């Protein structure tokens, strides 16, 4: 078999020499090596890298084959190896982002398109009914009404600002669907964030809290290896996430309005809000921006709460969070989170 002499090598990511070899190969393909990669394989012809693939979490990424070696089954070898390693780790539901021109290749390898930003990016998964199963799950909570709204948030942790936005939206909706971003890239684990939101909005009878699962795309997991400019990465991520929402999630629940908090500080969130106002109205989803809640002269934000945790100023936190969040922060269960916040980098 042609190219059977090409060997697979697992790259030791702690080895700068091995990483640089893969990064240099990707650069020749006009790709970059994403920083969050957990596992990488290279295909070697002698000592020369002629193909590579990686993953982070359940997302396959940085897959490339030298142009002289294409059409010989090497992409299949790379993807098969990565999928096999994922299955060995217990991960059977997998995703990948790639350029639209590569989508047919990955379709032949068992991946199905979820949504696409033309000429920019396509999101794919390895389950034909993956997103449909999620839509069936959330549709069990569908309610009828004239105004069916949505809010999407990370809630790291849940603050009075978040509660204010939800109460404001609930008062202007027949039914409000709140989605919690699900990737565990935040200090507060997804199940904890979900529970704190549910407990804090339990007094609102027309609010349903959903787990965002794999279909509310976090900026933390959106890969950028095939996009050169940072602003283009932000815009493409926002557009793809909002297309998934508009094409799949909103129709499943009859959502026709989405509420967002205004963003005076974070340029990434401001870009996201701007793209939302461009994308969602095309699918008959109105976008309503709400002024952020202030306490004194200070805007309430999760990042401010984390800053106060880092400084150990818990007496000041009480004015910024609901009772449920504050009681959790004082509990034994929160101590490991607090230690991470005090010792780690800032995370959304």
Jot down its keywords:
alpha/beta; 5-stranded parallel β-sheet; 348 residues; 7-stranded mixed β-sheet; Aminopeptidase
Task: Tell me about this structure.
- With 348 residues, the protein is α/β, with parallel strands linked by helices.
- It folds into 2 domains: 7-128, Aminopeptidase; 132-343, Rossmann fold.
- It is 38% helix and 21% strand.
- It is built from 12 helices and 14 strands.
- It has helices at 16-28, 74-88, 103-108, 130-139, 160-170, 190-200, 230-253, 267-279, 302-311, 314-317, 323-329, 335-343, and strands spanning 7-10, 39-45, 48-56, 59-65, 95-98, 112-117, 121-125, 148-153, 175-180, 207-211, 257-261, 286-290, 294-295, 298-299.
- The strands form 3 sheets. The chain has a 7-stranded mixed sheet.
- A hairpin with a 2-residue loop joins β13 (294-295) and β14.
- The model has no long low-confidence stretch (mean pLDDT 92).
Strand and helix map with partners:
Blueprint (H helix, E strand, L loop, with lengths): L6 E4 L5 H13 L10 E7 L2 E9 L2 E7 L8 H15 L6 E4 L4 H6 L3 E6 L3 E5 L4 H10 L8 E6 L6 H11 L4 E6 L9 H11 L6 E5 L18 H24 L3 E5 L5 H13 L6 E5 L3 E2 L2 E2 L2 H10 L2 H4 L5 H7 L5 H9 L5
Parallel strand pairs: 4-5, 8-9, 8-11, 9-10, 11-12
Antiparallel strand pairs: 1-2, 2-3, 3-4, 5-7, 6-7, 13-14
């Amino acid at each position: 078999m042609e190219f059977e002499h090409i060997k697979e090598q697992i790259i030791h990511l702690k080895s700068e020499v091995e990483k640089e070899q893969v990064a240099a190969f990707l650069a020749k393909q006009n790709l970059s090596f994403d920083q969050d990669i957990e596992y990488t394989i290279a295909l070697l012809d002698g000592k020369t890298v002629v193909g590579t693939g990686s993953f982070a979490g359940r997302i396959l990424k940085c897959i490339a084959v030298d142009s002289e070696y294409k059409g010989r089954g090497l992409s299949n070898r790379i993807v098969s190896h990565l999928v096999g390693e994922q299955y060995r780790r217990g991960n059977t539901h997998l995703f990948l982002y790639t350029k639209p021109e590569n989508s047919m290749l990955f379709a032949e390898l068992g991946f199905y398109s979820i949504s696409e930003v033309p000429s920019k990016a396509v999101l794919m998964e390895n389950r034909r009914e993956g997103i449909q199963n999620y839509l069936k799950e959330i549709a069990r909570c569908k309610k009828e009404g004239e105004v069916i709204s949505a809010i999407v948030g990370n809630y790291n942790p849940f603050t009075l600002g978040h509660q204010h936005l939800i109460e404001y939206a609930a008062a202007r909706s027949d039914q409000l669907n709140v989605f919690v971003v699900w990737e565990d890239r935040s200090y507060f684990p997804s199940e904890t964030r979900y529970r704190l939101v549910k407990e804090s909005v339990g007094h609102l009878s027309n609010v349903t809290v959903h787990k965002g699962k794999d279909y509310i795309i976090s900026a933390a997991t959106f890969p950028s290896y095939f996009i050169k400019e940072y602003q283009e990465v932000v815009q493409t991520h926002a557009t793809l996430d909002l297309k998934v929402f508009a094409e799949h999630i909103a129709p499943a629940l009859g959502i026709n309005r989405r509420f967002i908090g205004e963003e005076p500080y974070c340029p990434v969130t401001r870009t996201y809000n701007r793209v939302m106002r461009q994308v969602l109205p095309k699918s008959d989803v109105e976008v309503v921006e709400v002024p952020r809640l202030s306490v004194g002269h200070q805007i309430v934000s999760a990042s401010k709460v984390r800053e106060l945790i880092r400084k150990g100023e818990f007496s000041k936190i009480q004015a910024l969070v609901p009772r449920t969040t504050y009681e959790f922060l004082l509990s034994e269960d929160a101590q490991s989170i607090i230690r991470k916040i005090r010792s780690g980098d800032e995370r959304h």
